[in-house]
Amino acid sequence: MLTDMSVLVASTITAALMRRKPSNTRTWGWARLEVITAAAGAVVLLIVGIYALIEAGMRLFGGSKAEIDDIGLLLFVGILGLAANIISIFILASQRKDNMNMKAAFLEVMNDALGSVAVVASALVMISTGWNGFDAVAGAVIALMMIPRAIKLLSNAVKVLLEETPEGLDLDKVREHLENVPHVVAVHDLHASTVSTGMPILMAHVVVERGLTMEQAAGILTQLQDCLREHFPVSVPHTTFQLEPEGYSSPSSNELHE
Prior knowledge:
Keywords: Ion transport, Membrane, Transmembrane, Transmembrane helix, Transport
Radius of gyration: 26 Å
Low-confidence stretches: none
Main location: membrane
Subcellular location: Membrane
CATH topology of the largest domain: Alpha-lytic protease prodomain-like
Transmembrane segments: 29-54, 74-93, 105-127
Pfam family, one: Cation_efflux
Helix content: 55-70%
Oligomer: single chain
């Protein structure tokens, strides 16, 4: 319960901070906090899942047994917890695709809801058969369901934190498209990453023909931006292009890293 509350409180605080406007010191606002909170939530889910799996194994195969004094109270608490979880699931369901933070919160609530279902089912099994090992089996099943989801969420968060290229964006094809824009000679120092969910960014140095007018340069920028917004599975609305005349030489990021 403590871990559930911790993840939900952290997700709520993160959602509130993300609404703050960017500043000179935080030019992207608190957008990246979404990914950090999601990563932390995924780690918590992973630890809880592994612990539940180990505990279930010890109960099933190690001879450890838990004695239940009041099965009726157990059933009541399970039903009450499930009702609260269902309400939370309905609240979070529509937001879980918006960002990683809400997805982490949704997974935590879903994990808790499945735990409540396991409690109710275990109480009913104990009432009908007297066997108190069903909750260990249910706990193991829930853990096996949640661990892969936690790993996937953590993997996605780490990819963003490492500033990997957004999934679905092939930089070789991006370069090819950009170099097909009229008056563009070459593209180098091409980088793409994700600030937070739904906020991919791209930057590049674009070598253009000499002697272009300001109007022509502006037209090239418009075509480059339109290309990134329209031609790829991942639309990139935020782009930064540095136009360089053909023959211009400056230290590139590639050269600096050699």
